[in-house]
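Q: Predict the bound structure with magnesium ion.
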Amino acid sequence: MSPKQLPLWRSMLYVPATAEKFLAKAAGRGADGVLIDLEDSIPPSRKTEARAALAAAVATVRAGRDGEKPAILVRINRPWRLAIRDLEASVIDGVDGLCLPKVDSADHLAAIDEVVADLETERDLPPGRLSYFVLVETAKGVAEARAIAKASPRVCGITLGGEDLAADLGLPEPDPMVLAPYNAEILLAAREAGVLPMGYPGSIAEFSDLEAFRAAAEQGRREGFEGGACIHPAQVPVLNAAFAPGAEEIAHAEGVMAAFEASLAKGEGAVAYQGKMIDKPIVDRARRVLEKSNRLS
Ligand code: COA
Ligand code: MG
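A: Predicted complex:
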């Protein structure tokens, strides 16, 4: 079985489903995905209104798209009575995926899968097309992360929700140092399952100090993550740059590939390049850099 082609999700921009002004220009902000939110940015008193506004919100974002970009996902609520109604509203033409909060078991995803598949059939939508962006935001979710990442072929990305996890763990705040081991669990779970590890060690709410946000995103990339979510358009270019290979990195990868191919032609598996030894794992990393940069260009 060939590994599934994962989407490019460097930057996923949350927009509350009721924020008409934000929705109008959301598609033009350069994000790889727009996450239309029915969950935490919508107060309980407005859940019904937000759900009723969803189809129009999707159409608004879709109208502003350039080709397939950005992907349009809907974040539903976790409690089942809300979740079912949210799914009924979200599994519609024009929606590319679902963002699923507070997922804490593979069984939870299996139940969502069943509802989504029913709706796809009933509505004549292409079966299995909707992808999932999974949020792990509880102690139980972290403990189950590996099973969750593998639970459904629809899962494309998984991330830690730092604010909610901090609350569940009884932390005074989502200190990135304290959350680091749980983020590492997400990275392992995602890589083992062949889905996108998403995240960075910093606050999603940081939209004023963009230097601090950039440092967090770049650290996320160094830790192996492929993208992250954000809440303000100013954060989008920062994520896009941090989670794409830079010019120097691309030039280095090209040099590594050229040196390695020359060494193979001579029948050697290891060779020196710029004073360092290169062999297969280094070449594999260089190949990944070039593949990603090709997909982005
Ligand atoms: N999506 C799309 N556009 C957004 C946006 C978003 N999330 N947040 C702000 N904008 C737009 C504004 O419409 C404005 O556009 P304009 O200059 O073209 O008119 C521009 O970005 C600047 O907005 P600004 O005045 O700096 O933001 P604000 O003070 O009005 O709002 C927040 C700040 C944090 C309240 C707002 O960004 C927000 O609600 N974000 C989403 C929150 C969310 O979804 N949370 C749940 C997920 S954790
Ligand atoms: Mg939350």
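A: The chain is about 50% helix and 15% strand.
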